[in-house]
Amino acid sequence: MNPLRNDCFALPPGVNWTPVEEALERLRSRLHPVVGMERSVPLSQVSGRILANDVYAPRAHPPSSNSAVDGYAFAGPLTEVPCAMPLVDGRSAAGEPYMEHVPEGHVIRILTGAVIPAGTDTVVLEEDCEVIDGQLHLHGTLKAGANLRKTGEDIKAQDKILTASTRLTPTQISVLASVGVESVDVYQRLRVGVLSTGDEVKPVGSAVTDWQIYDANLPMLSALVVQLGYELVNLGHVLDRAEDVKAALESGAERCDLILTSGGISAGDEDHVSKTLKAHGDISNWRIAIKPGRPLALAMFQGTPVVGLPGNPVAAWVCALRFGAPAMALLAGSGWFEPQAYSMPANFHKNKKPGRSEMLRARIRDGQVEVFGSEGSGRVTGLAWSEGLVELNESAQQIEPGTPVRFIPYGSFGL
Ligand SMILES: Nc1nc2c(c(=O)[nH]1)N[C@H]1C(S)=C(S)[C@@H](COP(=O)(O)OP(=O)(O)OC[C@H]3O[C@@H](n4cnc5c(N)ncnc54)[C@H](O)[C@@H]3O)O[C@H]1N2
Ligand code: MOO
């Protein structure tokens, strides 16, 4: 794999505010997959992994024509009713096919999933007929091929069933298994480091005083990384000391393909993440025209990209999803994505400043988008309450109930 360029996030001179779309486009165009391949990984271990190659079906699905119902098979169509047909001795059950030819004008007992015997091509549902003295009595007409699942109607042998870069879901694993694929080549898991910073921040479980807060971001970002299917590298928490931040980033750069940091990236006296990245890496402190998350740092540190997230938990979450998730997907081999948004009517009022995007914590109720009561960037309850984000673009200003807004469910980010 090619290494990433050190100046890959640099902004052109003189550029200050970066619109969201431009920031996303810059990320998309400067990053590329950095992971190697793991060959022949068994299906039991591929959930959430990313396919490295296209997969072709070694056999058809279904492999032979079979019945979709419990009933009786005969040669269709059936156009003249009522009628009666003699029942042959024997039956076709799933896993126990009837190997002989069914004579013309005869019917045979067949069960769901059983191979359709030679001489038949149509199945009548058992509820729609009755057997009296060895004769099957039918009252309704049937088209030829009724209640039949034809060979290869779902997948033909050699069909391409999945494409490279697909992140494997349980349902896709079922498709692989259905045609007998035992193992696939996947990309190695992207190793994502998570580092939390701040003198006031204490890991959950430690003793705290009133001027200290528990670390909400490290557990949140760690859970995000795991849920997105990446390998979590816990870089822990460091104080706002340049040498500690540097040591943690060095350790991360050795072990990770990307590092997410929390806090210390705006321009304050104690913003040691941005200072360290400036002193030892190649940073572009992007002032993105977005609320929350205005300060977002993108940097290369010893060859490893660093996404410096703001400390406020809401801003950290929004930026991790809007910028981090597509960037990680690209590095991991599943490709850049633009999250699927749905246009839905708002059920809220909002006056918004033009010139910046805003992301509001949101959810859908009764076909309308509601937003959390407070936009405070430290309000973690709004994160737990929300099921997605509303993205208001730069030009949006006045939102009234009924105004269509872009709702992005968390599922659209891969969660
Ligand atoms: N003069 C300016 N001040 C600030 C600006 C600005 O543009 N000019 N931007 C504000 C915005 S917007 C944000 S967001 C923050 C981002 O600052 P930092 O990334 O440097 O974050 P910190 O100052 O370290 O922390 C901000 C806030 O979040 C709390 N925090 C930090 N880490 C955690 C954690 N792991 N768990 C929970 N809460 C955390 C921290 O205590 C602060 O309250 O800067 C504004 N200021
Ligand atoms: O990113 Mo800050 O949280 O906009 O308030």
From TrEMBL:
Belongs to the MoeA family. It is an enzyme of class 2 (transferase). Pathway: Cofactor biosynthesis; molybdopterin biosynthesis. Keywords: Magnesium, Metal-binding, Molybdenum, Molybdenum cofactor biosynthesis, Transferase. This is Molybdopterin molybdenumtransferase. Signal peptide: none annotated. Residues 193-330 form the MoaB/Mog domain. One of its GO terms (biological process) is Mo-molybdopterin cofactor biosynthetic process. It comes from the Bacteria. Catalyzes the insertion of molybdate into adenylated molybdopterin with the concomitant release of AMP. PROSITE patterns: MOCF_BIOSYNTHESIS_2 (PS01079). GO terms for cellular component: cytosol. Pfam families: MoCF_biosynth, MoeA_C, MoeA_N. It catalyses: adenylyl-molybdopterin + molybdate = Mo-molybdopterin + AMP + H(+). GO terms for molecular function: metal ion binding; molybdopterin molybdotransferase activity. Its cofactor is Mg(2+). Its EC number is 2.10.1.1.
